[in-house]
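User: Design a sequence. Structure:
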């Protein structure tokens, strides 16, 4: 499971010209579910992300977690994070999980985050989405459950 975590001032997701989710300060999380991902991978990734101390304290140091600042999380499914571009010019997505299982893991990830962060919203799995954000920093981190 791969996640691109962007610390944001705000972010939103629009589908068919309708804003379906929006948050203030927090994380925009682009989440890619791989075929071999397990519940353990999902929980490990969610915990690591929530425990990250990447928000500024009163001295301007990145010492605070998303829980410390009362931040929100917007999770967006992003299977293209799993693209294999080693051969040719068209990416292969063979590593991406089966859509039904990936949807289940995507929803489970959002639910796992909600256990600790009340303000969790999500994009629409499988939909064509427009994602808007104001990256705060900019501050962007890539997490891979295989490397945690």
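Assistant: Done.
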């Amino acid at each position: 499971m791969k996640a691109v975590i962007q610390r944001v001032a705000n972010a939103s997701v629009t589908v068919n010209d309708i804003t379906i989710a929006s948050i203030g300060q927090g994380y925009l999380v682009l989440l890619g579910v791989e075929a071999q991902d397990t519940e353990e991978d999902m929980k490990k990734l969610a915990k690591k992300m929530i425990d990250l101390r990447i928000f500024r304290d009163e001295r301007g140091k990145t010492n605070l977690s998303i829980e410390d600042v009362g931040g929100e999380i917007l999770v967006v499914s992003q299977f293209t994070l799993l693209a294999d571009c080693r051969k040719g010019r068209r990416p292969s997505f063979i590593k991406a999980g089966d859509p039904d299982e990936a949807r289940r893991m995507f929803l489970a990830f959002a639910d796992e985050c909600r256990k600790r962060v009340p303000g969790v919203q999500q994009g629409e799995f499988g939909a064509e989405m427009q994602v808007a954000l104001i990256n705060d920093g900019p501050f962007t981190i890539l997490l891979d459950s295989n490397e945690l």
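The mean pLDDT is 96. The first strand starts at residue 2 and ends at 15.
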